[in-house]
Hints:
By secondary structure, the protein is an all-alpha fold.
Amino acid sequence: MLISLLVIGGLIVLLVLWAIGIYNGLIRLRNQVDNSWSQIDVQLKRRHDLIPNLVETAKGYMQHERQTFENITQARSQAMGAKTVGEAAKAEGMLTEALTKFMAVVENYPDLKANQNFLALQETLTSTENKIAFARQAYNDSVLYYNNKIQMFPSNIVAETFDFTKREFFEVQNAAEREVPKVSFS
């Protein structure tokens, strides 16, 4: 009788330790996803701060491009106001599209392209875009690992018990961004 109680007690202790281990692992993964999102947020903030300087530098040269500036300003405002990962992905896609059009228009202004301030801002923006891409990849990797952990047996039992929810990937919303660029040597 005593041995049976000790065995049952030992199994209960092992079960509790197992649940605690899984719970702590899920907390660590959730915090890792949150940290990854914070890294994206830092880079997006940097991008949002650079855009007004880039636009102001260009305004002196590009007198007739009011619509281009308005599109960038509107896209930036929407991106800064995004609340969820999905909203941010959609808004950042629109901002990227507006910046791409802006850079295409810049090609028509050789004096602007030669301006040192503009070139420095453009280089910083390019560097920031690369950091954003890296941060998005790290975030999506964290989300994948976390989502797998909360959905796979046996950790899904603990995840469901403590209401761990699936996280959203930072995905490309704009179909044009998914297309492969066309290269032509003609």
